[in-house]
Design a protein that fits this description.
There is one protein chain. This protein is an alpha+beta fold. It folds into two domains: 147 residues, Major capsid protein gp5 fold; 180 residues, no CATH class. It contains seven helices and 18 strands. α1 packs parallel to α4 and α5 packs across α6. It is globular. The mean pLDDT is 84.
């Protein structure tokens, strides 16, 4: 066996184990992915043309019985089905024959060079997967990318008094509208000044039917006025508390955000506010996952996210979103000798997507009033 053939054989034998370790490192190297994995929401080996899941939207009807009336049985269709296409991206590199010939007397040297190629490809894939967490894949050069959280966070215009923004007209996610009342339903209207003038209801405060906001995210206008003060620096703790309250009340027990993902400036202003009040506390939950320096507020971890725009933030529950891969590991790989171009080729890729529950998602946005 030639040195080159021996090196290629070694690379093929070690690649599967290499990628198993790489997948673990990718997940454990990022807190939000580690939290999703702890909830069983890193899903691999999805063998289907699309990812399809059910969302409970309606409740069976309750009927008051009086005067010995008979029973009435109905078959309530409680669920709506969502579906999302797979997204794919790859990083491909090559090792020219010249390099291989120079190192052909040392199979280990070739394996090391190829390993460096794979490692760099993997690091790029990992970084891109993290970046895509926030991407809007519905427009421009982002079309075809994984479905990041901004793909359905699209606020409509607001007026000065609004502290909640509604979804822009026509916005969809997983082939379903995210607008209020897209499936009907109703909501209370008792507040003198509604959170959103366009909705003209108490939503997301008050109470109403589950169909009314079954697929609608809560988009807080953080430069609005909350109890007499304006701006995120003044209102950040108020907004985080209100976010937890409305998500808990509209999605049920356990629906409050567990992770507050904040851009640099929003995170720093929360830190300043917590320090003023001597409320800085490290998250025991994050510490148990290997992240000892993460702060917590209101039973949620506070995370500075480098890929998150600096003046934006998002509240999510890792039990209400997932990352899935069609492959049996997070990434797939291939390497081969290409006779036509006289080189060894290396490819690292991802086929899968992020999945979200818009109703269980909060966004913290600065929106200029019209």
């Amino acid at each position: 066996m030639t040195a080159l053939a021996e090196a290629l054989q070694l690379m093929k034998a070690t690649a599967p184990q290499y990628f198993k370790e790489a997948t673990d490192h990718t997940i454990r190297g990022r807190l939000i992915l580690a939290m999703m994995e702890s909830q069983g929401n890193i899903v691999k080996n999805v063998k289907a043309p699309k990812f399809i899941w059910n969302v409970t939207v309606r409740e069976p009807k309750a009927r008051i019985i009086t005067g010995g009336q008979g029973h009435v049985f109905t078959n309530t269709d409680t669920d709506e089905q969502l579906e999302i296409d797979h997204a794919e991206f790859e990083v491909a590199e090559a090792l020219p024959r010249r390099t291989q010939m120079i190192n052909s007397n040392s199979p280990n040297a070739l394996v090391d060079i190829a390993g460096e190629k794979l490692d760099k490809c993997l690091k790029t894939c990992t970084r891109k997967l993290n970046d895509f967490f926030f991407a809007d894949n519905t427009t421009g050069i982002n079309v075809g990318k994984p479905t990041g959280i901004k793909s359905f966070i699209k606020p409509s215009t607001v007026v000065a008094a609004d502290i909640i923004a509604l979804p822009a007209s026509g916005t969809t996610y997983a082939n379903k509208s995210i607008e209020l009342a897209s499936l009907g339903g109703g909501w209370s209207s008792n507040l003198a000044t509604p959170p959103s003038a366009a909705a003209d209801t108490d939503w997301p405060w008050g109470e109403g039917s589950s169909e009314y906001d079954w697929n609608t995210p809560k988009m807080f206008r953080v430069n609005g006025t909350f109890n007499g003060s304006a701006g995120w620096a003044n209102n950040c703790l108020k907004v985080l508390r209100r976010s937890a309250a409305v998500l808990r009340s509209t999605t049920g027990e356990g629906g409050a955000p567990v992770a507050q993902l904040l851009g640099d400036q929003l995170y720093s202003e929360v830190e300043d506010r917590l320090e003023e009040r001597e409320r800085t506390r490290v998250s025991d939950y994050a510490k148990s996952l290997g992240f000892p320096d993460v702060l917590t507020y209101g039973n949620a971890v506070l995370m500075r996210e480098y890929a998150c725009p600096s003046r934006e933030g998002y509240g999510i529950n890792p039990n209400e979103c997932c990352l899935y891969s069609v492959h049996d590991e997070l990434f797939f790989t291939d390497q081969s000798w290409e006779t036509l171009h006289q080189m060894s080729t290396f490819l690292v890729g991802f086929l899968g997507n992020y999945c979200w529950t818009p109703r269980s998602t909060a966004a913290y946005l600065e929106i200029t009033a019209s």
